[in-house]
Write a structure and sequence with these properties.
Elements (H helix, E strand, L loop, with lengths): L2 E5 L2 E4 L4 E8 L6 E7 L7 E7 L5 E3 L7 E6 L4 E6 L8 E9 H9 L9 E4 L3 E6 L1
Length: 132
């Protein structure tokens, strides 16, 4: 059974940091890319950052470049999102998803935001709240 378990959300003051974790099981981790998404009410789920497990290539949305860092531990089947210099605008429910590495790597290589449609598996969300 494919499972993605997201954790690490919480309440933090503006300027603070959090590290989200996405633990995967039930599929061959290195054949997939994993992305972190957030979704505002009534809006499409948008990628914040993604990583191709096979080669470590990454994508960051402009809004988080320089503040967030995505990484993976293939031995632990886990992807992390280190979030620094958080602002109230980062408040949201964060989801991790896994999808075919080739399609997502192609999007990343073209500088195109990987669509949520490229992701096959999803974890439950974890709430990040940043107070001002």
């Amino acid at each position: 059974e494919v499972q993605l378990q997201a954790s690490g959300g919480g309440l933090v003051q503006a300027g603070g940091s959090l590290r989200l974790s996405c633990a995967a099981s039930g599929f061959h981790f290195s054949d997939y890319a994993v992305g972190w998404f957030r979704q505002a009410p009534g809006k499409e789920r948008e990628v914040v950052s993604s990583i191709v497990n096979r080669d470590g290539s990454t994508y960051y949305a402009n809004s988080v470049k320089g503040r967030f860092t995505i990484s993976r531990d293939n031995a632990k089947n886990t992807v992390y999102l280190q979030m620094n210099s958080l602002t109230p605008e980062d408040t949201d429910v964060y989801y991790c998803g896994a999808g075919d590495w080739f399609a997502i790597s192609t999007a990343q290589g073209m500088g195109v935001r990987p669509s949520s449609k490229l992701y096959d598996y999803w974890g439950q969300g974890t709430l990040v709240t940043v107070s001002s």
